[in-house]
Q: What sequence folds into this?
């Protein structure tokens, strides 16, 4: 826990543009989840392509996991709040993601991997965020790294908010991962009732707050658990105030402004690149 940090300054707080409750869906081999950031928001929340929230204490909702499947052209960031998930990919990487850990995977030109729960009972809860890659990096070599909870930078503010820094920089503390093109910020905030958290944000960066415990207020708008607040871009940051004990993820990044062509687990810039990707996958050239 880092306890020396500088305060963030926000003069004009961003307001909430829209609250989103997401869509119940299932993916993989029948894993039930809520797709919070859906395809129709990819433009608005560029460079982020998807956010799935999974949370259940019923093993039938998650037990079959995500057997072998491909990805190309973007990054997946899996944050496991509770539970254990084993992952294994075509490049020979294997790891166990558990209780507060993060897996950051750059699919680049291609991976085939599986994500399988390693528990038959209990609560499984977490998020998977998809971060786009710029056109120039879509065909980069795949990369991945596991961070155990203890390896993630974290600090506590004077107001008593604990912040876990998955990506980017906050209060002068660097997160676990940085990315030049999109400068992603990914914070998990644990706020005691009455506390507020201040984060400066460049106006051009798109940003959202997804609350998963309690209720917060953002510039006068109440945001309850299970809602994603898309933030307006006007202003120089955000102030998140806990109306009761609350937990939320704050995500922001610089938009790429490039065309998005998606076919399921492949995200490229053009339909021709998607056709090429499908051919590569069919012919065993993806990974
Ligand atoms: Fe996957």
A:
């Amino acid at each position: 826990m880092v306890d020396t940090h500088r305060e963030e300054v926000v003069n004009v707080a961003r307001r909430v543009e829209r609250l989103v409750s997401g869509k119940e869906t299932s993916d993989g081999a029948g894993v039930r989840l809520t797709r919070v950031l859906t395809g129709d928001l990819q433009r608005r929340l560029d460079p982020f392509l998807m956010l799935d929230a999974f949370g259940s204490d019923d093993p039938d909702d998650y037990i079959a996991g995500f057997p072998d499947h491909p990805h190309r052209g973007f990054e997946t960031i899996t944050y496991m709040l509770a539970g254990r998930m084993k992952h294994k990919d075509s490049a020979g990487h294997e790891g166990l993601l558990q209780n507060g850990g993060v897996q950051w995977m750059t699919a680049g030109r291609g991976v085939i991997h599986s994500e399988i729960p390693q528990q038959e009972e209990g609560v499984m809860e977490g998020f998977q965020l998809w971060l786009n890659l710029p056109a120039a990096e879509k065909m980069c070599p795949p990369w991945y790294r596991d961070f155990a909870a203890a390896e993630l930078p974290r600090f506590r503010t004077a107001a008593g908010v604990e912040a876990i820094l998955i990506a980017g920089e906050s209060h002068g503390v660097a997160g676990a991962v940085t990315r030049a093109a999109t400068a992603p910020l990914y914070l998990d905030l644990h706020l005691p009732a009455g506390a507020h958290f201040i984060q400066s944000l460049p106006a051009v960066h798109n940003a959202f707050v997804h609350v998963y415990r309690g209720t917060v207020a953002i510039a006068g708008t109440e945001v309850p658990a299970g809602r994603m607040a898309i933030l307006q871009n006007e202003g120089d940051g955000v102030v998140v105030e806990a109306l009761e004990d609350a937990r939320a993820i704050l995500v922001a990044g610089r938009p790429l402004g490039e065309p998005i062509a998606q076919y399921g687990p492949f995200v490229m810039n053009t339909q021709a690149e998607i056709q090429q990707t499908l051919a590569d996958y069919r012919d065993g050239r993806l990974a």
In short: Helices lie at 271-282.
